[in-house]
Every structure is written in C-alpha cells, then in structure tokens.
Write a structure and sequence with these properties.
The complex is a heterodimer of chains A (254) and B (318). Chain A is an alpha/beta fold and 254 residues long. Chain A contains 9 helices and 12 strands. In chain A, a hairpin with a 2-residue loop joins strand 4 and strand 5. In chain B, helix 6 packs across helix 8 and helix 10 runs antiparallel to helix 12. Chain B has one domain: MetI-like fold (Orthogonal Bundle). The chains are: A alpha/beta (254), B mainly alpha (318). Chains A and B meet through helix 2, strand 8, helix 3 and helix 5 of A and helix 9 and helix 10 of B. Bound molecules: adenosine-5'-diphosphate and magnesium ion. Magnesium ion binds next to helix 1 of chain A.
Chain lengths: 254, 318
C-alpha cells in the first residue's frame, strides 16, 4: 500500500475537560477529495486545524507525504520543529476559513502576493503574474485592486482560495467555506472548488453542502462526538449508511 | 389654524391626537417653524463676552503687542522653539517604539513578559512626568557611574559618569518618553487586539513566519487604528515639553522666561510662547487630519468594538 499524501493517526485533542477529538484517523491520497460532514461541535474544525498544526494535538501525529508535521526525525527520535521549519511545512497545505480572513489593509492582489513575497525567493514579476492568473481563475481578474471591504462575501472567499493557491500547496483544507455566505453567493465559491477538484487538487473539505459533497467527493467522512463514525464513497455514506448515528444525522440535514 | 393651537405646539401640548377630519397639506399651507429665542439670547451673550475679551486683548496697555512682535522671531525664542520640537519628536518616537515593544510583551504568552510590561505601564502611567524628570536629573546621587561589563562579576569594560550622561535634555526626554511609552503601549495593545485573530491564523497557515505576520499584517492595521489617539498624544506631548523648564532646558517656555527675567516683559513673552505653541498645535492637527484621511478606509470602523475612549477615537468613525 502506498502512503497517503496526508495521514492523521490517532489524533486526540481536549480543551480542559472537553475532549474534542478522541483518536481520529484520516487518510487522504494524492488527488483525492474528501468531505468531512457531521453535526456542529463534533470536532470537524478542530481536526482540520490539527492537520496544519494551528492546533497542537495532545496525542497522535499528522504526516504530509510521510513527514510528521511539526516534528523531524533525528535517528529514531522525533524532535519538535522550530517555528520557521513548521512554517515551511504549512506552506504545503493551503487553508480556507469560514470567515475568509483576508488581510484587511491589502488589496485582493496584495492578499494573494503577500505570502509568496515574504516566504519564497521568487522574482516579484513572477509572483504578480501568478497572482493575476489565480485571480482570473477564480473569476476576479477585474477586482485585483479592490480591498476586502469592497468585495462581497463570495468574492472575498474566492480571493482567499486564490491566496492559498498562490503558495502552490499540495493539499487544500477548507473549513465550511460557504457557511458565512448569503445563499445566492454559495454557488460561485462551490463552482471554484469543483473546478479545483477536477484539476486534480487534493482536498479536505468540511462542509454542510451535502449535494456538493456527494458530487465532488471521492470519500465522505462522517464525524460525531470527536470520532470518525463512518468513511465511504458518497454512495455508501449517503445511501447505505452503516451506522444509526450517520443515518439520523443525514435525515436531519437532507 | 388658530394661534392657540400654534402656541400649544410650542409648549409641547400637541400630541398628534386629531379632532378635526384628516386633510392634506398643500403648497399653499402656511407652515410655522419652531422659533428659538434662546438661540438669540445666548448668541448675544457670547458676542458681548467676545467683544470684552478682544477689547482686553487689544486695548490693554500691558499686552504690549509691539514687544510681542519684537520677540516673536527673536533668536533665543526660535532656538527654544527648535528645542521644543526636538523634545516632542524624540520623546514621541522613543515612546512609540517602547510602546510597540511593551504592547507585544503584554500580549505575549510568556508570563514574565506580561508582568514586566504590566508593571512598567502601571508605574510610568502613575508617576507624573515632572516628578520623573527631576528624578532622572538627580539620578547621579543614586547611581554615580554607569558601568559596562558582565553583571555580578568584577569585569568592567567601560565606565561613564552619570552626571555628564544625564543632561537636563536627557532627563527631560526620559521623563516624557517613558510616560508616553505607557500610554502608547495601551493604545497599541488595543489596536493589535482589534486586528481579527483569523488573519493571524490565515497568515500562519500560509507559512508566513510569526515575526513577519506581526510586521506586515498586524502592526500596519493596528497602527492605522491608533493614528487618531496617537495624534492626540503628539499634541499633548508638545504641551508637556514645557515642563522641562524646571530643569533649565532652554525650550520655548524657558527661553521666554529667561528673557522676561531680564526685561520684566512677562505677559508679552508668555504671549510669544503661547502663539508658537498654537502654531505648532495647528500644524500637528492639520498633519494628523491629512494622514487620517489618507489611511482612512472602512476597517477603521472596528475601532468601536475595542472600547477605546470614545472621545479619542470618535474622529475616525465616519
Ligand atoms: N479554542 C477552543 N477552546 C475551547 N474549546 C474549543 C476551542 N475550539 C473548539 N472548542 C470546542 O470544541 C468542540 C468542537 O468544536 P469544532 O471543532 O469547532 O466543531 P465543529 O467544527 O465540528 O462544529 C466544541 O465543543 C467547541 O466548543
Ligand atoms: Mg466548525
């Protein structure tokens, strides 16, 4: 068996007495799209944030292409990485947040170019050219000079996707990217994501958009109470759920 | 409409209750606006006060406007003006620099940094700048020498004499800058906290190192938010510099005092100093407003959420 591109094994995370993740495993192969669904509070965001170590798991490890995130092997021991080295691992995973989190003082173009500029030793012209290309790809070529407050929610989220893509990540993590959007703006963001999926991007998507999940996923992961209850193809999970908890969640949301 | 009803509207008795059948107002309907007699009475009183004041200003012999004119551009005064500007600028730059460091320490996860910053702010906000200046000026009686070496050993590379190090100018700068650092730290901390935490996470997820996140994302937005209160501090600082006259630092006020101690033209020279302070304050205000206009864009609305003193931040909010 080949190693998955992204692998989380036995992730535990508690906030005080609140055990949020109780030993979660996840395996995402290159080019795969996995949607994580589950009731609110089940630990989906926490899991996603553990993947790129925005949250530090209490137990368990995340591996990207076989490399433990946040650690380096020294002989047979794991040594925690310095922030700069962790930052270099994080570059390889793009993340898109529910609340967009664009840099408020920068234009759309500057939002996209900032990280490559600060992190990569790339010529400025190349960075800008790629940023413009990415903005065009998310349909915002004409908004390059707009600030976040001059953009709609859907446009902001598309800039955020372009910003994450600018670092040329190997995996994209999406945490409910359309939950903060007005219903009529959801489509434009899901459209961009479907296209990414079609282009072969490896993606982990936390979402409540069930029909989108059914469309784009190779696998659907159902989480409840800090555990992965069920993993399967969309058909297996949505039509032939093995667990009562999955079935009852689906009847509530569908 | 009868005049009785009209009076009722003045005394507030018109409640909107209707006894007559409803009708539409037309272009011909005569409309009586509320009159404001107190506006005129108050206005007249203020005019009289202004007149009296102006008469005092221009007919009172002791004002001696000709003396004011003679000294307005006097060499000593201009030198004092320059010292005042230098004091203001230096104290402000040092104060803001320290303030940024203190704010970051205050928000750091290290409890030692947090408490040192807290203590510093508590102390320098509590001790009047005048007391500090006198204290710093007399520091030599407490610490006669400054030694550069390895602490807690006998190794000393260089020694300075505190008396020659702590000039009145240095003591003045210290007193002003340290006070400002405490106020600036609190403002900048509020500014930093106003930058949404999600932006920091987004930057971290992009692989931008922490120091760069602070420099390129958090501080630019935080400083934008605190420009108006810092502008106010700049103007306060200008006025606080006049305290240095107690250390015989030849600033604007002290230069004026030196001259009137020789020629006894106290009031005219105080007017000279006053005029220059007003000129500088006006200048600073103009600059502050143009800077504010330049960096002004919507995210500044977030100021409201951070619980700044509304009188300080009120100006930013459109
Ligand atoms: N930073 C935090 N501090 C304390 N509790 C948290 C924190 N983040 C999340 N939680 C708790 O963890 C649980 C799971 O949250 P989350 O992962 O956001 O769930 P989901 O994304 O599935 O809705 C919730 O009970 C939430 O209150
Ligand atoms: Mg969530």
């Amino acid at each position: 068996m080949t190693w998955p591109l992204l692998k989380a094994s036995n992730i535990h995370k508690a906030y005080g007495d609140n055990e949020v993740l109780k030993g979660v495993d996840l395996e995402v192969h290159k080019g795969e799209v996995q949607c994580v669904i589950g009731p609110s509070g089940s630990g989906k965001s926490t899991l996603l944030r553990c993947l790129n170590r925005l949250e530090v798991p209490d137990q368990g490890y995340v591996y990207l292409d076989g490399e433990p995130i946040g650690f380096g092997w020294v002989g047979d021991d794991l040594c925690e990485l310095r922030p700069a080295a962790l930052a270099r691992q994080r570059e390889r995973m793009g993340m898109v947040f529910q609340s967009f989190n664009l840099f408020g003082h920068l234009t759309a173009l500057e939002n996209v170019t900032l990280a490559p500029r600060l992190v990569n030793a790339e010529p400025e012209r190349q960075v800008v050219a790629r940023a413009r290309e990415l903005l065009a790809r998310v349909g915002l070529a004409d908004k390059a000079d707009h600030r976040p407050d001059q953009l709609s929610g859907g446009q902001q989220q598309r800039v955020a996707i372009a910003r994450a893509l600018a670092m040329q990540p190997e995996v994209m993590l999406f945490d409910e990217p359309t939950s903060a959007l007005d219903p009529e703006l959801v489509g434009e963001v899901l459209g961009v994501m479907s296209e990414l999926a079609r282009d072969g991007m490896t993606m982990v998507i936390v979402t409540h958009e069930m029909s989108f999940a059914a469309d784009v996923s190779d696998k659907v992961v159902f989480m409840d109470g800090g555990q992965v209850v069920e993993v399967g193809t969309p058909d297996q999970v949505f039509r032939h759920a093995q667990h009562a908890r999955t079935a009852s969640f689906l009847t509530r949301v569908l | 409409m009868s005049s009785a009803t009209f009076d009722d509207s003045v005394t507030g008795k018109v409640t909107g209750a209707r006894s007559e059948p409803p009708r539409l107002a037309t272009a011909e309907t005569k409309v009586h606006r509320l009159k404001h007699p107190s506006w005129w009475v108050g206005g007249a009183a203020v005019l009289i006060l202004i007149g009296t004041f102006l008469r005092l200003l221009f007919t009172n012999e002791n004002m001696k406007w000709d003396v004011v004119g003679d000294y307005l551009f006097h060499g000593e005064i201009l030198h004092g003006l320059w010292v005042t500007i230098k004091l203001t600028a230096l104290a402000m730059v040092i104060g803001l620099g320290l303030g940024i460091v203190l704010a970051i320490m205050r928000l750091s996860k290290n409890p030692l940094f947090q408490s040192v910053s807290w203590l510093w702010i508590w102390f320098f906000r509590g001790v009047p700048p005048l007391v500090q200046m006198v204290f710093w000026f007399n520091l030599a009686t407490l610490i006669p020498e400054v030694r550069l070496g390895i602490p807690f050993t006998d190794v000393v590379w260089h020694t300075w004499d505190m008396n020659s190090l702590m000039t009145s100018f240095a003591a003045a700068i210290l007193g002003l800058a340290l006070t400002e650092s405490a106020y600036a730290a609190e403002m900048i901390r509020a500014g930093i906290m106003a930058v949404p935490r999600g932006q920091v996470e987004a930057a971290a997820a992009l692989g931008i190192p922490g120091r760069k996140v602070m420099q390129r994302i958090v501080l630019p937005q935080a400083l934008r938010i605190v420009i108006p209160p810092i502008g106010n501090d700049l103007i306060s600082m200008l006025k606080f510099t006049s305290l240095v006259s107690v250390l015989a630092t030849p600033d604007l006020l002290y230069s004026a005092q030196m001259i009137y101690s020789r020629n006894y033209q106290t009031i005219p020279l105080l007017i000279v100093a006053t005029l220059w302070y007003l000129v500088l304050t006006t200048l600073f205000t103009v600059v502050q407003q143009s800077v504010e206009r330049k960096v002004h864009h919507k995210p500044l609305l977030q100021v409201n959420r951070l619980g700044f003193n509304p009188f300080r931040s009120g100006k930013v909010v459109p």
